TrEMBL record:
PANTHER family: CARBOHYDRATE-BINDING DOMAIN-CONTAINING PROTEIN (PTHR35532:SF5), SIMILAR TO POLYHYDROXYALKANOATE DEPOLYMERASE (PTHR35532). It comes from Sphingobacterium spiritivorum ATCC 33861. This is Transglutaminase-like domain-containing protein. SUPFAM superfamilies: Cysteine proteinases (SSF54001). Residues 172-242 form the Transglutaminase-like domain. Pfam families: Transglut_core.
Length: 496
């Protein structure tokens, strides 16, 4: 076995530094200016050149005990077990470095990216009508965000060409049907799995292909490569934390026949991202979000929104759901804070999801999804300090604080019947375990009301109840961690 591993890695080399080649942008511009038919290629050169000198890629590296960088051909490795064993035997560790784009690519690379992308646009019926703006933003780019450039386009063109050409010759050659065929093909050889031996924040195509499995984020990125290679505009939208349920999500979005980028075009059974507290789009284009809009206000505070620490993200919450701005009057105690966070309830804790600068003691949190509980927090040297304010936005755009809603209706004794601690399929209560009903107070604390064992798989609590109150069901530690807030309205559980 060891001999086979050694043979497999016989091509491993220590990385040697080399002088980067200068990209001859003017030469490309001149070449594509000679013929009017190359106008899109000319626009592509100008698009890729913009902010190019400030662009970089994240590269996964392997290091030996002497800190030598070892180049491993991930795309030539059979499986994760083989890589794991080799790294253990040779005592290698993985790390990520940032490399300037100008040190990676040359003029030939840029020309190839443009020629391949334009060729895919001109090849199929569904891609010929794509606007130049969408083409430049979501088909042309040779990477999604900050991953290392790879040869994903030629790979997918090779494995998809047959069935896409066949579809294009039919009358059903819509962009949705092309996307569904691509989806069907990928799910034949790629599977969902949250465990990955390599877990880069910016996995390149070779890393995705090597494992043949991944969580929603990796699957979304793989789909984007496949769709772009077919001339279909696509990118990844990120939900850092749902807010309406635990955890986060990533979804590929692509152009549909209505001319908009949408999630779940290839499926009919999903709700998409309509219940996400915030949605952020990964872009190739420079947005300047962190450098220009956030970092000037941080002072010396650690910034707790990792998904914002880049310049390639835009807020697209309004493209997926109903949302409104939340304006918050900052209390005097926190008036010196340069910015505030707005948090959502996630795995039993309030965690930041968005931010706002302090503008004359007013914080404006833009595009916040309706019917999700939020809590304000102030930055500290060690993290955050939660303010007592719990609020939400109604479907009409009204911002309500929960310390007001208790007074709207006179409370009375009521029976609350419940058999789950969140809306998941595996969240049912168990007969031998003790559960506690908790009430969310206006100061953000949870008050224990009553504890019981279930009967016939169900709990019944007789309490003084207001239909506008928020509760959660807790028990052992794992349940506390997973429990979600809920309301009890007209004898029904409304999960938040």
């Amino acid at each position: 076995m060891l001999r086979r591993i050694i043979l497999l890695f016989s091509l491993i080399l220590i990385i040697q530094c080399k002088e980067p080649e200068i990209i001859e942008w003017n030469s490309l511009i001149n070449d594509y200016s000679k013929d009017d038919r190359d106008s899109l290629k000319l626009k592509s050169v100008l698009f890729l050149r913009n902010k190019f000198e400030s662009r970089y890629s994240e590269k996964l590296l392997f290091m030996d005990k002497k800190n030598n960088r070892i180049k491993i051909r991930i795309d030539s490795i059979q499986n994760e077990a083989t890589l794991m064993k080799y790294m253990q035997i040779n005592k290698l560790e993985s790390s990520v470095i940032k490399i300037k784009e100008s040190e990676i690519l040359n003029t030939k690379d840029i020309r190839r990216f443009i020629e391949e992308a334009v060729s895919s646009r001109e090849r199929y019926s569904w891609s010929k009508g794509v606007s130049e703006d969408l083409f430049l933003k979501y088909v042309l780019p040779y990477k999604i965000e900050m991953e290392f450039p790879t040869e994903w386009r030629s790979y997918f063109e090779r494995i998809q060409q047959g069935f896409l050409d066949s579809l294009d010759r039919t009358t059903d050659n819509s962009i949705e049907n092309a996307a569904k065929l691509i989806s069907k093909n990928i799910y034949q050889w790629y599977r969902y799995d949250k465990s990955n031996y390599l877990f880069s924040q910016q996995p390149d195509f070779n890393e995705l292909l090597f494992s043949r499995k991944g969580e929603c984020y990796r699957i979304a990125r793989l789909f984007v490569y496949a769709l772009r290679s077919a001339g279909i505009p696509a990118t990844v939208d990120i939900v850092p934390k749902w807010g309406s349920k635990n955890a986060g999500h990533a979804e590929f979005v692509l152009l549909d026949s209505s001319g908009n980028l949408k999630a779940n075009v290839t499926t009919e059974h999903k709700q998409g991202l309509c219940r996400a507290s915030k949605v952020f789009r990964q872009n190739f284009s420079y947005s300047g979000l962190y450098t220009d809009s956030i970092s000037p206000y941080l002072r010396n505070y650690p910034f707790k929104l990792d998904h914002f620490i880049n310049d390639n993200t835009t807020d697209v919450t309004n493209e997926h759901t109903t949302c409104y701005d939340i304006k918050f009057n900052i209390p005097d105690k926190y008036s010196s804070s340069p910015f505030l966070y707005i948090c959502v309830y996630n795995y039993g804790a309030w965690e930041p999801i968005f931010w706002s600068k302090n503008n004359n003691n007013i914080a404006s949190f833009r595009k916040m999804t309706t019917n999700i509980l939020y809590r304000i927090a102030s930055p500290t040297e060690n993290g955050i300090e939660l303010l007592p304010n719990i609020l939400f936005v109604t479907n009409k755009g009204e911002v309500q604080n929960i310390d007001h809603i208790y007074l709207k209706k006179k409370s009375k004794f009521h029976i609350i019947k419940i058999n789950k601690f969140n809306d998941g399929e595996r969240a049912h209560v168990e007969s031998e375990k003790l559960y506690t009903l908790n009430l969310l107070l206006s100061n953000g604390e949870w008050k224990k009301l009553e504890s019981k064992y279930p009967k016939n798989g169900r709990l019944s609590f007789r309490i003084i109840h207001s239909p506008n109150s928020f509760y959660k069901l807790t028990g052992e530690n794992s349940i506390d961690y997973l429990a979600r807030p809920f309301q009890y309205v007209n004898n029904k559980i409304i999960w938040w």
